[in-house]
User: What shape does this take?
Amino acid sequence: MTGIRELEIREIPPPKISLPGEVLLRIEAVGVCGSDLHYYTHGNIGALVVSYPWIVGHECAGTVLETGSGVQNLKAGQRVAVDPLITCGECDQCRAGRANTCRHQRFLACPGQMPGSLVEYLVLPEQCCFPIPDSMSLPQAVATEPLAIGVYAHRLAHPEPGAKIGILGSGPIGLCVLLACRAAGDFRIYATDLLEERLAVARQCGAAWTGNPRREDIIEAIQQREPPGLDYVFECAGQQETLDQAADLLKPGGKLLLIGIPEVERVSFKPDLLRRKELRLQNVRRQNECVGHTINLVATGKIDLGPLLTHDFSFAETKAAFDLVAAYRDGVVKATIHIPELS
Assistant: This one.
């Protein structure tokens, strides 16, 4: 990335293993994520500001080429999906089972931490690499990264059987939450989005009802079907409008899970409404040790990622992929960039 909405392919020195626990990967596929688009269209996410040139991309999969002397569970030739979070394993957060809030973490393509995965070769710690079965395609492996966020969000919510669930925003993350919830139990799920194509995918993924706020009053429509209110709402759009809708839709004692990343620095709530309903708010950050379990869910057929994998691009078409996703064109949900062995 060389500027706002500017991408180009450059030659850089290939990385080398420097620590015993590292592996060298040949990256073969990379997904275009919403956070990548924040950097692409705005140059930042909050205080994380891109310094150009910058390598983007963090949803990735590839093949192990070499292993360090201390690597125990991986070998050359294995295909792997990647957890893009590198943790210290020693701070109070890591010791408390909160690796996703590690105080010394580094994340692929996060400004100030480490460059991204839109490259031929990448060196990562062994613990970031998860073997995938021969039956799993590279786009599926790439998509296990956002799906793991959905799996983690469901784990944080821990809905009881028969719970009534709302998902506001049926983009890739919202749909991953939907798939994770459907795989975990018998819930009635209400999904919303501004794009009819994505609502169609949500129905395909198991939503009992879908609604478009541009075409109907989704609060009234859901309340007619669920007069007591919803038990859980996953806010996946990062918009003030959906935050307000979530508070209105939840029943007293309900739980709001905040997953969407707002483009603005501040959002607001109506404190009187939250207080009177005694609503619970839970932020969701990344996937916290859920990647391996997520791969198993896909490998065993408990979750079908097919409806989400809508577009494929070559490495040379990377900018076209980003522009397509940024413009929400052609019914795109998840675009995968395939990187051939160039050298």
